[in-house]
Amino acid sequence: MKKILLVLVSSFFLGCTSTTGVQLSFEDDKSNAIRAHYQNYLNNDMDGLKSLWSPDLKVYLNSTESISLEELEVLLQAQHATFSPIKMSWGSEGKTDVGQWVETASYPPGPSNEALTVTQTWFNWIATSKLTGETIKMPAHISFVWGADGKISEEYHMYDTKEMIAAIEASEKARKE
């Protein structure tokens, strides 16, 4: 009987605690905005990309030091000058390729943070060098932090750029020769 009473009392207290926590979604406005943002990237539509970026955008490329919006634009233009086609792929063999895995998490305020909304993405970046015909495939993870204005305020890019940068440098060298 004591055990039943303990379970009932525990259930009451647990039922009364706040269940507000992280909210995860896949088909919300922000997730869909990132899917459109990626389509702008694949189409080399810089104006489309800029429409979602905050003017004060901070981009972290495998670093704790941010690069400027201008530096990001130069890198994206170099990618499109060096590679064609560029694809983004996510899916297991025999399953539907969704292009990118996209999810948006809204985090409540905590003892060391304000409320925050982040869209996280995972995909394989696949691109073929126009110079050599070699195809690069690298797993990528990019997180987008949303500002109060509904625009991307920060991006965190996490992937190994060694092969990409080597191909861009080789392409630039060949253009100069």
Your description of this structure?
There is one protein chain. Strands 1, 2, 3, 4, 5, 6, 7 and 8 form an 8-stranded mixed β-sheet that branches. This protein is α+β, with helices and mostly antiparallel strands and 177 residues long. The protein is globular, with a radius of gyration of 21 Å. It has one domain (23-176): Nuclear Transport Factor 2, Chain: A. It is built from 5 helices and 8 strands. The longest helix is centred in the first third of the chain and has 15 residues, at 2-16.
Brief summary of the model shown:
With 177 residues, the chain is α+β, with helices and mostly antiparallel strands. It has helices at 2-16, 29-42, 46-50, 69-82, 162-176, and strands spanning 23-25, 53-61, 66-67, 83-89, 101-107, 116-129, 135-146, 152-158.
